[in-house]
């Protein structure tokens, strides 16, 4: 019986080689993804298999901008490995069953299933549900994924793409035959800035500003880099000193707790093109009287923000300033801010401190693409 079993295994490997699967180079990714029984070398589980017990190795890698594959070091949470990766990058999961001196009849297989927990990233909404994890080509990643029955010391690899939104993905891998065991790992999809508590924080209450935009779907919407938060706190205080009789600034939507896509329509899609890395915020325009807006624009530019006025689209119902924090040591003078929601918006920081505001739309109020008259305009109450 044992000889028959070995012969069957060898025939299976021969069929795989004939099909173009090179075990020395690892399992072909496209051929490896599918359901059990789809492959010419797939073998039924054989009760009583008594091959040597191998060692399980798991590795998660990401593709860098220059095409290199970079292994991710695991941290541990309650003895469970946690791999942290950025949103929207190509990832590579490698499962291995290794043995220093395996006999000829040593083989293994794995069944890997994932679960998605977006509320870790600040998303408390599920209608529609989050998109399935995808392959790099954009197809749904099968769930679960089954490997072929594979010789010991041969890797099983599958590639996938991390979602644009922040989330925790838990993968459970059930190994059979020579590495019979179960292994669980977490993959945290979050922007790199959010992984360091000394560089990432939530906006506190303060002087000269109010926090807006929190919803049941996104209750924590004011996370940002420490430099961003400190700059906004100072801007609020400076505004109150410069315009003590004016109302507070309205701060709306910096980033979610782990950054990534901020889907304000709760559908896992833009329109927010930014608000991902904790360096963008929307400042309400309607809350600032027209005669004070030029003063505010100049203060925001001087504080280090590129400033863009948005509200010219029919779909954009709230006229606001979209701010992008510039690198350390830079002001916003002469800087342009990428569009966030409104490609018709205009940049508002003059090239130089004393230059005029570059466009009347920076001071005028637009909501839903419509000009909003504000006559009579009261005089500025700033000092």
Give an overview in words.
Helix content is about 15%, strand content about 30%. The longest helix is centred in the first third of the chain and has 17 residues, at about 1-20. The protein has about 375 residues and is an alpha+beta fold. The strands form five sheets. Strands 3, 4, 6, 7, 8, 10 and 11 form a seven-stranded mixed β-sheet that branches. It has a six-stranded mixed β-sheet with strand order 13-15-16-18-17-19, covered by helices on one side. Mean pLDDT is about 85; it is low at about 1-50. The N and C termini lie far apart (about 95 Å). The protein has two domains: about 1-190, Sandwich (Immunoglobulin-like), CATH 2.60.40; about 195-370, Muramoyl-pentapeptide Carboxypeptidase, domain 2 (2-Layer Sandwich).
Gist?
With about 375 residues, this protein is α+β, with helices and mostly antiparallel strands.
How would you characterize the largest beta sheet? 7 strands, mixed
Provide the structure class.
alpha+beta
Helical proportion?
Answer: 10-25%
By DSSP (H or I, 4+ residues per run), the number of helices equals: 4
Write the CATH architecture name of the largest domain. Sandwich
What percentage of the residues does DSSP assign to strands (E)?
Answer: 25-35%
Write the layout of secondary structure elements.
Elements: H1 2-18, H2 29-32, E1 55-63, E2 69-71, E3 75-77, E4 80-85, E5 90-98, E6 107-117, E7 145-146, E8 150-151, E9 156-161, E10 167-177, E11 181-189, E12 200-202, E13 209-212, E14 223-225, H3 226-242, E15 249-252, E16 280-284, H4 290-303, E17 305-310, E18 320-325, E19 346-347, E20 366-367, E21 370-371
Parallel strand pairs: 4-11, 13-15
Antiparallel strand pairs: 1-2, 1-5, 3-4, 5-9, 6-7, 6-8, 6-10, 10-11, 12-14, 15-16, 16-18, 17-18, 17-19, 20-21
Helix pairs in contact: 3-4
């Amino acid at each position: 019986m044992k000889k028959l079993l070995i012969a069957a295994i060898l025939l299976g490997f021969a069929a795989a080689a004939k099909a173009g699967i090179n075990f020395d180079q690892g399992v072909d990714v496209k051929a490896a993804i599918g359901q059990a029984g789809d492959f010419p070398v797939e073998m039924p589980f054989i009760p009583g298999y008594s091959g040597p017990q191998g060692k399980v190795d798991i590795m998660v890698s990401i593709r860098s901008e220059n095409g290199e594959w970079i292994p991710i070091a695991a941290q541990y949470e309650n003895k469970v490995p946690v791999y942290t990766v950025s949103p929207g990058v190509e990832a590579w999961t490698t499962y291995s069953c290794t043995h220093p001196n395996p006999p000829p009849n040593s083989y293994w297989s794995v069944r890997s299933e994932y679960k998605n927990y977006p509320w870790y990233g600040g998303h408390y909404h599920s209608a529609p549900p989050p998109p399935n994890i995808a392959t790099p080509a954009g197809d749904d990643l099968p769930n679960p994924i089954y490997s072929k029955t594979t010789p010991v010391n041969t890797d099983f690899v599958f590639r996938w793409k991390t979602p644009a939104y922040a989330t925790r993905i838990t993968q459970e891998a059930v190994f059979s035959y020579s590495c019979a065991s179960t292994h669980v790992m977490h993959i945290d999809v979050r922007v790199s800035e959010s992984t360091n508590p000394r560089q990432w924080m939530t906006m506190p209450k303060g002087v000269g500003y109010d926090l807006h935009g929190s919803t049941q779907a996104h209750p924590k919407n004011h996370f940002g880099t420490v430099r961003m938060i400190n700059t906004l706190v100072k801007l609020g205080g400076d505004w109150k000193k410069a315009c003590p009789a004016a109302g507070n600034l309205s701060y709306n939507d910096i980033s979610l707790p782990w950054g990534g896509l901020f889907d304000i329509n709760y559908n896992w899609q833009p329109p927010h093109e930014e608000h991902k890395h904790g360096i963008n915020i929307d400042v309400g325009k309607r809350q600032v009287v027209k005669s004070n807006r030029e003063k505010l624009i100049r203060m925001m530019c001087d504080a280090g923000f590129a400033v863009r006025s948005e509200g010219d689209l029919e779909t954009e119902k709230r006229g606001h300033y979209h701010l992008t924090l510039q690198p350390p040591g830079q002001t916003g003078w002469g800087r342009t801010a990428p569009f966030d929601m409104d490609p018709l918006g205009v940049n508002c920081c003059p090239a130089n401190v004393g230059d005029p505001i570059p466009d009347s739309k920076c001071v005028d109020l637009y909501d839903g693409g419509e000009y909003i008259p504000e006559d009579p305009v009261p005089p500025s109450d700033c000092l």
